[in-house]
Specification:
about 400 residues, alpha/beta, Immunoglobulin-like, 5-stranded parallel sheet
Length: about 400
């Protein structure tokens, strides 16, 4: 029996392990399928990490090393190159690696921190053949930053997620010509600072309400046809334009890695693709917690670490049986303009920070929280956008008198 098993050794997994250890749990095991701790941060060599958490700019590997160093100092156990195959409903984990073969671990509590994966070309239904030169932005990032390969010289990027924006700059710095970034939506899904620093600073055009409708080339990409889309996101035929290029990078969304979560019976949100959790990041399965990008896609890794600390401390409480008797949850709903919240429910007691994302860009708005018909909280924002996480704090007084809360985005 292992007290706490954490699946995933990226920033979320390591942060959760350290928090659980510091809360009193010594029997902690991190399972990581890669050959090193750190997760996706190992290939993110640009700076901008750690401003919230450490008050300084770090690269991805530097940020990861802060946590790996602490894991090693505390003597927290970890298994690398280890793939988790299954989790049973009674928290028995089946895993495999070259040294141990196939083995099982029984856990008292589990933290899911598997991160997310990129949406692939197969999910996009773009016309054309299957030539070489089509990469997800993250794969291209790994080739350039870790393997020293340049995927192509004339690049079109589809999707304006943060990885795509960062790779537009990275490919330019490596000598490639980035022709344009096309975005299906009328707004970018990336951070405003990345649009400025990665596109505008390098005169790379961002074509909003545009998509790739056809890929040309048999052996290698020879070009793509782009088109403007209407309000229903359907291509407008008369706007079709051929763009010669040898590489297409896809930055078209991230999907939380929740195959294992499904096996253990965790209830997933249809909006985020991650688990539905309470304020302690506990899922619908008692003793199973989730944090980081496996729960919902974050814009900053600093917030991943903060969320993982919540899960780590809560897992420690669960193991030490310091959890209060089951109480009735306060459910949290949204109006649709606010796409989702995390957590989706909360117990009464302490103040709770609720994170949320909006579905569209809006200016001069109010985030209103209602308990029934009664307005209990208002937060004004000059601008909100889908690419940037927002939050409000629900006070213990609000929670004490509420049975269900509704988050609404309304004009001033």
């Amino acid at each position: 029996m292992t007290e706490l098993v954490i699946i995933g050794g990226g920033p979320a997994g390591m942060s959760a392990a350290i928090a659980a250890y510091e809360a009193g749990i010594r029997d902690v095991l991190i399972i990581e399928r890669d050959e090193a701790l750190g997760g996706i941060l190992q290939q993110c060599i640009h700076n901008g990490f750690g401003l919230h958490k450490f008050g300084e700019e770090l690269t991805g590997p530097e940020y990861a090393w802060r946590y790996e160093k602490r894991v090693r100092e505390l003597g927290i156990a970890f298994k690398l190159g280890t793939m988790v195959l299954d989790i049973s409903k009674d928290k028995v984990i089946t895993a495999t690696n070259p040294e141990d073969g196939m083995f099982r671990i029984e856990a008292r509590a589990i933290i899911l921190a598997m991160g997310c994966r990129e949406r692939s070309k197969g999910a996009l239904n773009i016309a054309g053949t299957r030539p070489a030169g089509i990469y997800s932005a993250g794969t291209a990032q790994k080739y350039v930053n870790m393997k020293g390969y340049l995927p192509g010289k004339e690049i079109v990027i589809l999707g304006s997620g943060d990885i795509g924006l960062i790779m537009a700059r990275r490919m330019t710095l490596e000598g490639a010509k980035v022709k344009m970034v096309c975005e299906l939506m009328p707004f970018s899904s990336g951070l405003a600072r990345n649009i400025e620093q990665c596109l505008n600073d390098f005169d790379i055009p961002l074509k909003l309400s545009h998509t790739v409708v056809e890929i040309h080339g048999k052996e290698r990409v020879e070009g793509v046809t782009i088109a403007r889309v209407d309000e229903n996101r359907k291509p407008i035929e008369e706007t079709r334009e051929f763009v010669p290029c040898d590489t297409l990078l896809l930055s078209v969304g991230l999907i939380p890695e929740n195959e294992l979560s499904k096996k253990i019976g965790v209830k997933l949100s249809p909006i985020t693709g991650g688990a539905e959790v309470d304020e302690k990041r506990q899922t619908s399965v008692p003793g199973v917690f989730a944090c980081g990008n496996v729960l919902h896609v974050h814009d900053l890794v600093d917030f991943v670490s903060e969320e993982a600390e919540i899960a780590g401390r809560a897992a420690a409480e669960y193991i030490m049986e310091e959890v209060a008797e089951m109480q009735e949850y306060v459910e949290i709903e949204t109006d649709g303009r606010i796409r989702y919240t995390v957590p989706q429910k909360t117990l009464r007691g302490d103040d709770v920070t609720v994170f949320f994302r909006v579905g569209n860009v809006a200016r001069n708005v109010k985030i209103n929280v209602y308990s029934g018909e009664r307005l209990v909280l208002t937060k004004r924002k000059s601008r909100v956008a889908p690419g940037e996480m927002e939050s409000v704090v629900l006070s213990s007084e609000i929670l004490e008198s509420a049975k269900k809360l509704r988050f609404c985005l309304e004009e001033e």
